[in-house]
Amino acid sequence: MPETRRPTLATIAALARVSEATASRALRSHTSLSPETIRRVQRIADRIGYRSNPLISSVMRQFRDTRSAGSLGNIGYLTFGPSATAWREHLTFLGFFEGAKARAEELGFFVDEIWAEEPDLSSKRLGEILRARGITGVLLGPAPGLPRAPQLDWADLAPVKIGVPYPNLPLPCAMPNQYHAMQRVLERLDTYGYRRPGLVLSSHQNVKTSAMWLTPFSYHVQHTPPEDRVAPLILEEWSEKTFVRWFESHRPEAIIGLRRELITWVERLGLRVPKDVGFVHLDLRTESGAFAGMDQRPRQTGAAAFDLVMGRLLANERGLPETQRLLLIDSVWMDGPTLKPRSEPSDHRAVTRKR
Q1: Scanning 41, 86, 110, 352, which has the fewest C-beta atoms within 10 Å of its C-beta?
Q2: Stated pTM of the model
Q3: What is the 3-state secondary structure (H, E, C) of the chain?
């Protein structure tokens, strides 16, 4: 659906050739401005059909009356999955929500959680629910599997995606910077003395992240001496048998991946982590346990997504933008027991399967 482009304060300021602050004061008939400036700005606003932003009015009323209490408004948070609570079992997904909720409460807003895939809930009915609850700003949480965009009428909404963008819907999106995370992983492995890292992902994980992990790893492989190159393993089906063939063919010194099950597969080969093979987890928040790897900071990503929604509301933006905007949140490296200490000398090239 094409974007509904509504006039903003910036539009008025540009047409009137004044600053946005002056345009704002003119619309409020501020006494610091001349009557001529006020009339000119207000005529332009009427001509282009400008409407004042109800959110700003609400906030200003709150500032003028410090005795007022309660929420400044509702922000919708759409959840996806086979049940209303299944998404909470994914710790990163839960972190996204908690970060957005905490940021909303800090600013005086309430996050209204809505299960968007509830059986018999049509897109039309979902839109009616949002309107009935007075919700304009909408956060769309992540979903298990590949993301599928709900078919809503976006014209009067200010939606923002969390986690990974929809491939066919240009919503603004706050997401972890997986490209930079992989670069950081490779840098850290190098300082630890690992020269032959190997990447293992499912095809689903690679597609969902738009190859943002695979791309920098592949670049690294291309610029590695031939004797140290380990081709990445992208599994169409999550298969231990395929993993074993790959491992025995390439003999990686450290494995980079998203599942602790990879450690189990290594141990079934008679090898130990980290003594014989290192392991780096790309998303420490998804599984319990102690690993070296990347904290994708899901709470910070959720808070950033909420800020994107607020920015759209304050700018009076609705509908789908012409150009998708991505806000990338850097992950943080965390040391852990699945890599050898840097001070411990070892010859990782001698890794062999123990029988």
Answers
A1: 352
A2: 0.75
A3: CCCCCCCCHHHHHHHHCCCHHHHHHHHCCCCCCCHHHHHHHHHHHHHHCCCCCHHHHHHHHHHHCCCCCCCCCEEEEEECCCCCCHHHHCHHHHHHHHHHHHHHHHCCCEEEEEECCCCCCCHHHHHHHHHHCCCCEEEECCCCCCCCCCCCCCCCCEEEEECCCCCCCCCCEEEECHHHHHHHHHHHHHHHCCCCEEEEEEHHHHHHCCCCCHHHHHHHHHCCCHHHCCCCEEECCCCHHHHHHHHHHHCCCEEEECCCHHHHHHHHCCCCCCCCCEEEECCHHHCCCCCEEEECCHHHHHHHHHHHHHHHHHCCCCCCCCCCCEEEECCEEECCCCCCCCCCCCCHHHCCCCC
